[in-house]
Design goal:
It is built from 4 helices and 2 strands, in the order ααβαβα. It has helices at about 1-10, 20-30, 50-60, 75-80; strands at about 45, 65-70. It folds into 2 domains: about 1-30, no CATH class; about 45-80, no CATH class.
């Protein structure tokens, strides 16, 4: 990611690189980035919208799983353990 930052900054982008996820998340609220480029992370959508079109939209946006509120505790634990979503 450091190399990517070195590429984007001279191209006119305001770049902040973090090598630690906790630090990146802590700074995100203050920095309010327009775009975040993440290296290998698993994204789970948690929303009140559960129609098939909502699930398709989250999948096409790069989410690995889609949960509908209220989340079922067992389903969340399965996802956190690395199992695929059942719904």
């Amino acid at each position: 990611m450091l190399l990517l930052g070195e590429f984007l900054a001279p191209a006119g982008h305001d770049v902040t690189v973090f090598t630690d996820a906790v630090a990146a998340l802590a700074a995100a609220a203050q920095l309010a980035p327009d775009i975040a480029i993440l290296d290998i992370c698993r994204l789970i959508a948690l929303t009140g919208y559960g129609q098939e079109s909502d699930r398709s939209r989250s999948a096409s946006s790069g989410f690995d799983a889609h949960l509908v509120k209220p989340v079922l505790p067992d389903e969340l634990l399965r996802l956190l353990a690395g199992a695929p979503a059942t719904a």
